[in-house]
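Retro notes
What went well: the complex prediction finally ran end to end.
Inputs used:
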Amino acid sequence: MAISCYCSLWTGSRRVITLWIAVRTGGRVAIQGIILDVDGTVILASKVLDGASETLDILRNRGYKLVFCTQQNQDSDRKLSDRLNAAGLQIYEQEIVSAGTVAVDYLAQNHRGSQVYVVGADSIRDRLSLAGLKVLADRNGETAEVVLVATDPDVNLTRLSVAAEAVRRGADFYVTSLDRGEPMADRIIPGPGSLALAIAYTAGRRPVVLGKPSPAMVAAVRDRLQLPSSSIAVVGDQPAQDVRLGRFLGATTVLVMSGVTTPEALERTSSSYRPDVILPGIKDVPAWLDLNKQKQPS
Amino acid sequence: MAISCYCSLWTGSRRVITLWIAVRTGGRVAIQGIILDVDGTVILASKVLDGASETLDILRNRGYKLVFCTQQNQDSDRKLSDRLNAAGLQIYEQEIVSAGTVAVDYLAQNHRGSQVYVVGADSIRDRLSLAGLKVLADRNGETAEVVLVATDPDVNLTRLSVAAEAVRRGADFYVTSLDRGEPMADRIIPGPGSLALAIAYTAGRRPVVLGKPSPAMVAAVRDRLQLPSSSIAVVGDQPAQDVRLGRFLGATTVLVMSGVTTPEALERTSSSYRPDVILPGIKDVPAWLDLNKQKQPS
């Protein structure tokens, strides 16, 4: 069975746009696990979004299993949890699935003992060393068997060149995510996707993505939740990452309009990234879950 | 009238491949001006290619007007000429049309007095200042009205971020060329195209190309030669740059196999970048011109 309704959103210029909300419930079991994106969904530019903290309490109290799925790759899940707690949001380390950790685990499993060259922060370099990979310095990085591109505050032409040369010579080529960049107070900082694209264009080869919505990330959240796809909802603000992750999982996809996606951008979004449900923000999730529950076949 | 013949080339692995040579001469006047690419055509990794020096003498002695058209943007045409002369190749400053000079001239003409932020070497920054543009430093580059991306030995995350932010805010966005990179002794160095792509992906907008095969470059070589298109030949090693430049000019296009294009890559090249003539190297150009002349309607 499918129900649908209309929802009105006000854009910045007060233009009212109407979005279609469809809830596919036919033959589905009730939602038991929720995968939540972090940036743009529960937090925005280091500030907790309206009602996010209370909503997480409500969801936990009602027995939903939560997983926070983020493209973050600089901090360990421990540090990330500490940072979110300091910002006023209770998120436990064990609830986090980050692109950085998925990348480290993936390389440890598939390239243990290999020589890896990293375009990224020192923290991810240290975690790869601990996970059993040999992390090469700039001076001999061209001979790497594996190249990993992540967020890199200290990127320069040498790093881009060494990575491109290693890739050109045949190294396995990975990127933590295809994120364009991170908006900061005064400017946007190029993300792993932008750096990987420069290297890919130089070397003439495309990278394998390990973050959302890759098979590696799908496997990681599936492992963590241990629930059938039909009882999972993915809540996030980016169609190309969150909705696609949900699609690959076979889960119900919920787009929140509290992050980077504008109503205009959503109208232009390819039909394969269109969410099942569109909500103004995280605080509207409990009411949607209630509605969804009522419509379940008893 | 059109004549065609077959030419055999030996690849590194000694596999013989046969390439089609077609010379379109129907209704054409004889070639009077030749546009020559530099890297991969007359010089390769700072070494003069076999027979290049003698060939330039022959062409000049026979009265052909020569223009050297390069994607180079770090040196002034003067410096470039000095560097080529030092390498053993007589090329005069007035014969050079470089992407760097075309970019400086274009911005001077279309954005004189504007604030420009440059991802590039100090030399191009200095030339833009001399041409009447206000070149911004990193600390206030986000407010630039124009962003120019070129070859940058000192690129870092700050420069990429500042450029991306200026572009995101609406600055006119240019790149000297879409070159992937420059192969050096031990590695490949990302070129303007690779850096511009990272910025474009971060900012969500594509740059306007000023080097080969852009309208600005077509206009620059047309101005320099002052000849009808039908009497111009373009000789270069890259289909996407040299052959396309020739196509946009309406000139005869000659691909030399002495540079980056492998016979295998040529087989995969889109039909719109296929050259009229394929020759092993620059030293075969005079014989082809002779053949071409004989076939002219008298």
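What we learned: The radius of gyration of chain A is 20 Å.
What to try next: split runs per interface for comparison.
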